[in-house]
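It is worth pausing here to work through a concrete case rather than discussing structure prediction in the abstract. The textbook approach is simple: state the sequence, then state the predicted structure, then interpret. We follow exactly that order.
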Amino acid sequence: MAGKRKRYPRSKAVISQALARDQYACRICNSYGMLEVHHIVPLHKGGEDTLENAVTLCKMHHSMITTAQNSKRGQVDPQTGLPYKSVWGWR
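Step two, the predicted structure:
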């Protein structure tokens, strides 16, 4: 099927542990709404579904980071999964 993305299994335990560790807030802006758990190293690039590879982000920042990771410019710090300050002005 053309255009259909592969889905990777997610651990509900990892999701709940990441949310709790990050105090149910986005690690960038500290908002409490519309939270998602982001994989620092994406699953489709060999990242693992582990707490160490997970970070809590709001929907807006998750979208921005995912877009940056998928761009050819490589604007995301591979250690944290967060954008570089010089590019985005955060962190």
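Step three, interpretation. The CA atoms of residues 6 and 44 lie 8 Å apart. The first strand starts at residue 35 and ends at 39.
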